[in-house]
Design brief:
heterotrimer, A alpha/beta, B alpha+beta, C alpha+beta, B: 7-stranded mixed β-sheet, 7-stranded mixed β-sheet, globular, C: alpha+beta, Mth169, Chain: A, 3-stranded antiparallel β-sheet, elongated
């Protein structure tokens, strides 16, 4: 069994990122573009069949339909050979970011609690939404103001987050809810919640704060040419 | 020769059942020198169907100009046309119909339509970078239409989203003529480096032929033949003909094929779409002028006991035929294994020009490939001007009262589902994946950037089918002109056109006449604008028990913007920008949306289009865009000036209103002889507000750019009128319209959700 | 031995079922007022080989719990029959 060297984030040399590519990933190249071309962060792809992650500080599980997702989103991807190493990477305290389908995979793999249901509207929804930053004391959000309101797109059919009451209470108590859907003013309410998710949850982290799962796509809001730039601070937080 | 089949005798009834006429049957006998067996009869029937052979449309399609600067792959040569865009890159694009399958099973019909058009693109070695679609349904208030809309939209969303290819734009119309026969035309655009374009050719005797993708089943049997028949009541029972799509499988296939294109192991590639294995093997052989042999025992099969007839005609989805360089098989097999796909070696390229199909070593079919592909029947159809035309074209303007309340008219037009916001639809499409979408749906044209360059591609699909119904020649011209204008409005130069010609039964002389007229109009427009036609498709038999649909020649135009920083949005951008109307306004309310919605009349002559003037407008706008003079540009179409201004306000990021109070000059300029339209005299107020005179745009500029704009417009000899100023919370138009933008917006946004939410 | 299992997967009672709710609403508008509640689930047919029925049941449970369901939101039941 392969052992990852336990070490702190490589200091001085900057962040090194890896993007896991499942056969149905389709935001892999988008994340790659933002990391390499926009933020100039060294990044490489890892094919899901690979049993071993290259040495890195950040693993990104990108959006898409990892295995077609006919059974449940993310249900098969968690059995990919590479996921064992992603778990070890996480247990070692290094960073894991799951975006959209990547978030769903983190839930299925048990790296974050809860599960995803179909959107309340039953339809796929792709549009920019407003998010409120609930916790800026994480490696992923330290460049955001506390309570900042962001505009970042979502694009999913199953982003209706669910967990039982105890789990929800645990998330709230440990301040693990990082993003909630909100109005542009920051107000919370069902009319600002695009998919029906419990507690308006858009993104959560683990207690150690090294794993973040989020439905919105920060890689789609990181360049002025694409009109939205609020996602950029998330990547900058990691550097 | 020994034939393995023990098939039913080939009776006249069986021949007719295959849609083959007695004359065509005699042609078949001549081609192969004997009577065909059942498998061969089936192969001829699908390959000689209108869908595959264009036997009825070919003589007319020749009218299209197909060559032009930068055309790398011409219309009809391959699965899709390709145009050079410089820097070693080329763009590959095509639009195709999936109308009949979508009428029967909207979700799967639309989904597999998307799958099919995407395969056409990546078969050429191009990576699909975006999708568009042109959809037409019956009236939105019918439950049947609502079911079709939900199904079609969900199907497109399912397939495109899973593939990770953004659906960035298109058009949606609602009209009773499409009741029961919706139009689902899907367009895909791909990017390829010039040196990695792949051809669908089976060249090089001895090269192995591979089949890649899931097993062949009985699904979609006779789909090509099915798409070439009238949609009758019975076809609702004809369900097995509809294929089921698997976008995940196609995603794997696409990635594997594109990876293969980067190796030197590939000779040719062709997808198995309409007419399945028959079409792929015969076309690749015919293009290379070679022979080909395949063994059906080696073809992966999903069902047991399939006959050679069934295997050759099946239209199971997501399958490719790949011709590989001998000795490089391992490279190919490894790539497909990486993507968990099974590549089966099913045959080989042969000397000669014959296509042979074996079943366990025994000959099941032997036909010259060219006989199936290039030597099908060509019919010159009878044409006759339809009787309705003269009657409906007559419109006495004196008999059309001008409405009292123009506010109410504008609200009613905006609330018509053909004009109202389509966000309910496009928010179900992932329109941002690949992070290249610069203009979201809802602009005049979609605009995507090309990473690693300063370039962008714009695209628009258009057709006003009521115009085509009332004057197919002018309607054809305008369909091209409008798509061109939309692309140019973003600052992009049109590169080429693809089209999807949706018409009724071509055996009816009236239908065929309109078809010919429309293609004539489109061709003349393409020539005037210097735009080559790079491909497309013909969909006949779009009829329901009530009659034929309006002639609907959908046009797709792709344009190139060299520097994405010179792009022009379509909505108001800045408070205080000056608003100009470019182009002349005439008393043209015939065939207008206003006349149909407000007066309940689908009559009159559509507006006249002056091709030279349109071309001049295009050059003017491109020049101004290049100089970064324009804050926004929006062309005028359905609903005229009032709807255009309302859209500029509603779609502006800050919901900016406008005060448009300088319409006098527009009024006066319209005076004078209007020989063409026969509407002399004073410009009617409704024509000014809601008329659809062609070759017009509303542009906004910062005050300091006024001089340049006016100067340039005069240089091109185009009428230019300063009509108002952007700003405020209201849209004020002349003395007759004043409405809050917020109210307009609320109305505009809620039309589709109100009808479509909450259903299953 | 060959067995055939019919597996029904449904959302736990405590989990809101947006699909079921929508179908129920649609039924109401279509005049089927008698429909009181609808839960949408999934159905699997699994053909499997096992030494005996007990072994078959064991592996089927594993398949369900490890793959077919997500225990956070779903539950399952099945029937197992010997196939000819």
């Amino acid at each position: 069994m392969h052992e990852l060297p336990r070490q702190e984030l490589t200091k001085g040399e900057g962040l090194k990122a890896v993007i896991v590519v499942f056969p149905g990933s389709n935001c892999d190249t988008d994340c790659f573009h933002v990391l390499r071309d926009v933020l100039k962060i060294p990044v490489e792809f890892v094919w899901h069949k690979q049993g071993k992650l290259p040495q890195c500080d950040l693993v990104v599980l990108p959006g898409g339909f990892s295995y077609g997702d006919y059974l449940r989103t993310g249900a098969i991807a968690r059995f990919s050979p590479v996921m064992q190493d992603v778990k070890r990477h996480a247990e070692a305290g290094r960073l894991v970011l799951g975006i959209c389908n990547g978030f769903q995979i983190l839930l299925e793999a048990g790296l974050l609690p809860g599960a995803m249901l179909r959107n309340r509207s039953l339809s796929f929804i792709c549009k920019p939404v407003w998010l409120r930053v609930e916790n800026n004391q994480t490696p992923f959000t330290r460049k955001f103001q506390s309570g900042a309101i962001l505009q970042i797109p979502i694009a999913h059919g199953e982003g209706n987050y669910f967990c039982d009451n105890d789990t929800l209470k645990g998330l709230e108590d440990s301040q693990s809810i990082v993003f909630r859907y909100s109005a542009q003013t920051g107000e919370l309410g069902d009319e600002f919640n695009p998919n029906g998710s419990l507690g308006h949850i858009a993104g959560i982290t683990n207690a150690k704060r090294n794993i973040l799962g989020m439905m919105p796509h920060p890689e789609r809001a990181s360049e002025s040419l694409l009109a939205l730039t609020d996602g950029r601070a998330l990547w900058e937080s990691l550097v | 020769m020994t034939m393995t089949q023990n098939p039913p005798a080939i009776t006249p009834k069986l021949i007719a059942l295959h849609g083959i006429t007695p004359e065509e049957y005699q042609m078949i006998i001549k081609k192969i020198g004997r009577e065909p067996n059942l498998t061969e009869l089936g192969m001829f029937s699908v390959m000689w169907s209108e869908h595959c052979s264009y036997k009825n449309s070919k003589p007319i399609l020749k009218l299209f100009p197909t060559s032009g600067a930068g055309v790398l792959v011409k219309a009809g040569e391959e699965n899709a046309g390709i145009v050079d865009i410089g820097d070693g890159l080329a763009v590959c694009f095509k639009i195709e119909s999936h109308n009949h399958p979508s009428a029967i099973e909207p979700f799967q019909g639309a989904a597999t339509g998307v799958g099919g058009i995407l395969r056409d693109i990546f078969t050429m070695g191009a990576r699909p970078i975006f999708l568009m679609n042109s959809l037409r349904f019956g009236k939105l208030d019918s439950p049947q239409t609502q079911r079709l809309v939900r199904g079609v939209v969900a199907g497109i969303s399912h397939y495109g989203n899973c593939m990770g290819i953004p659906t960035v734009g298109g058009e949606v119309y609602f009209d009773e003529c499409y009741e029961g026969n919706p139009l689902v035309n899907a367009m895909a655009v791909g990017l390829v480096t010039k040196d990695s374009i792949v051809k669908g050719k089976a060249s090089g005797a001895g090269n192995p032929v591979y089949y890649v993708g899931p097993g062949t089943g009985r699904d979609g049997l006779g789909g090509a033949a099915f798409a070439s028949r009238d949609l009758s009541e019975e076809s609702h029972e004809d369900r097995p003909a509809v294929q089921v799509g698997d976008p995940f499988m196609e995603k794997l296939l696409m990635e594997a094929c594109l990876e293969l294109c980067q190796t030197d192991a590939l000779v040719g590639m062709q997808d198995m779409g309409a007419a399945g294995l028959t079409c792929a093997t015969s076309e690749t052989a015919a293009r290379a002028a070679m022979g080909i042999e395949i063994d059906l025992a080696k073809v992966p099969q999903r069902e047991t006991g399939m006959t050679s007839y069934e295997i050759m005609l099946s239209e199971s989805q997501e399958r490719m035929l790949i011709i590989v360089k001998k000795g490089k098989e391992k490279i190919v097999e490894d790539i497909f294994e990486k993507w968990d796909l099974h590549a089966a070696r099913i045959g080989e390229v042969k000397e000669g020009t014959t296509m042979r199909v074996f079943e366990n070593g025994k000959l099941a079919s032997e036909i010259p490939a060219k006989a199936l592909v290039d030597e099908g029947p060509v019919n010159v159809r009878e044409e006759k001007q339809p009787a309705y035309l003269e009657l409906e074209q007559k419109l006495d303007l004196a008999g059309i009262p001008e409405p009292q309340d123009f506010n109410a008219v504008l609200l009613k037009l905006l609330a018509h589902p053909s004009i109202a916001s389509k966000a309910w639809i496009w928010e179900q499409y992932d329109h941002m994946v690949r992070t290249d979408t610069v203009f979201y749906p809802g602009h005049d044209a979609a605009l995507v950037r090309i990473k690693g360059t300063t370039k962008g591609l714009a695209a628009s699909t258009d057709c006003n089918s009521l115009y085509c119904y009332l004057d197919p020649y002018e309607g054809g011209k305008i369909a091209v002109a409008e798509a061109v204008r939309n692309v140019i409005s973003t600052g992009a130069r049109p590169l080429g056109m693809t089209n999807c010609l949706n018409f009724g039964n071509p055996m009816k002389p009236e239908v065929f006449w309109t078809f010919h007229q429309a293609v004539n109009g489109m061709s003349d427009a393409c020539r005037a604008f210097g735009i080559p036609v790079t491909g497309g498709n013909v969909s006949f038999y779009n009829e329901n028990p009530q009659g034929a649909i309006y002639p609907t020649p959908t046009v797709g135009i792709v344009g190139l913007i060299e520097d994405i920083e010179t792009r022009v949005p379509s909505a108001f951008q800045n408070q205080g920008d000056l608003i100009f109307l470019l182009g002349a306004t005439r008393n043209e309310i015939g065939a207008s949306h206003y006349l149909s919605v407000i007066h309940g009349r689908k009559q009159g002559l559509p507006p006249r289009l002056d091709l030279e003037r349109e071309a001049a407008l295009g050059r003017l706008i491109l020049g101004l865009a290049g100089k970064k003079v324009l804050s926004s540009c929006h062309d005028l179409s359905e609903g005229g000036l009032a709807v255009t201004l309302a859209e500029c306000a509603i779609r502006s990021p800050a919901k900016l209103g406008a005060v448009v109070d300088q319409l006098d000059m527009v009024m006066q300029s319209a005076l004078g002889p209007q020989a063409q339209t026969g509407t002399e005299g004073k410009l009617r107020a409704d024509a000014l507000y809601f008329g659809e005179s062609q070759s017009r745009c509303v542009v906004t500029v910062k005050p300091e750019h006024k001089e340049v704009l006016v100067h340039e417009a005069q240089k091109w000899g185009l009428p230019v009128f300063q009509i108002g100023k952007a700003g405020g919370k209201d849209l004020v138009l002349g003395e007759r319209i004043q409405l809050a933008v917020a109210d307009l917006s609320r109305l505009y946004e809620k039309v589709l959700p109100d009808s479509l939410n909450g259903g299953v | 031995m060959s067995y055939k299992a019919q597996v029904h997967v449904s959302l736990k009672k405590s989990v809101l079922d947006p699909q079921g709710k929508t179908v129920l609403h649609a039924l109401g508008t279509l005049g089927f007022k008698e429909a009181r509640d609808i839960r949408v689930g999934k159905y699997f047919e699994v053909a499997l080989e096992a030494a005996d029925e007990k072994k078959a049941e064991e592996s089927l449970r594993k398949i369900c719990e490890r793959v077919l369901i997500n225990p956070v939101i779903e539950e399952y039941s099945f029937t197992l029959t010997k196939s000819a």
